[in-house]
From TrEMBL:
Source organism (scientific name): Bacillus kandeliae
Family matches, as InterPro entries: Biotin_Carboxyl_Carrier/Decarb (IPR050709), Biotin_lipoyl (IPR000089), Single_hybrid_motif (IPR011053)
Transmembrane segments: none
Protein's name in the database: Acetyl-CoA carboxylase biotin carboxyl carrier protein subunit
Positions in coiled-coil regions: none
Pfam families: Biotin_lipoyl
């Protein structure tokens, strides 16, 4: 199982996947907002979303776990 982590601190602007969704490597799964910029966070490998750890509007720190993919 792989946990996708936040690349920087910011607010969760949009969650693009749900638990059970199939994702491909490079597919955006979450968009963070920091300093008026949108930062897409992509899956690193193909797999199935097992757990979404965050909700839209949450604040996350760098390296916080966002989504688990198996």
């Amino acid at each position: 199982m792989t946990t996708i982590q936040a690349s920087m601190a910011g607010n969760v602007w949009k969650i693009l996947v749900s638990e059970g969704d199939e994702v491909k490597a490079g597919q955006d799964v979450v968009i963070l907002e920091s300093m008026k910029m949108e930062i897409p966070i992509a899956a690193e490998e193909d797999g199935k979303v097992q757990k979404v750890h965050i909700q839209e509007g949450d604040f996350v720190n760098e390296a916080d776990g966002l989504v688990d993919i198996e």
